[in-house]
Amino acid sequence: MTKEQLAYLERRLTDERSRISEILRRFQADAEQDEARDQSGDVSGIPTHPADLGTDQQQREVDDAVARREAATLAEIDGALERLYRDPAHFGLDEQTGEPIPFARLDLIPWARTNVAGGASAAAARAASDAERRV
What's the whole-model pTM score? Predict the structure, then answer.
């Protein structure tokens, strides 16, 4: 991979890291605001219809799921940046096969650890091997 491609991927990773960090900050601020309103006894946030309670709970659950997914993605991005800084010559190589991950895939998902085809074939090979051992 060229130095220009590595620099481009570093920018993509840091941009995505900033974007996701901002999303997580907003989730945290909203949660803190809701908690402060609950502790203060402010009834203006209480729905006037019982069905709204279920809608509010569902929205909290969706928000929590999104926040968990974004936090996991942030951890993957941090790992990719660490790999990039630690060993740039090996960045972009499939962790399972050692083959280069296509730049087009890294452009879409710069924290990718495997080539889709390589990861799928390695998983298929492991499954076949496991099946043979059981026979």
Answer: 0.70
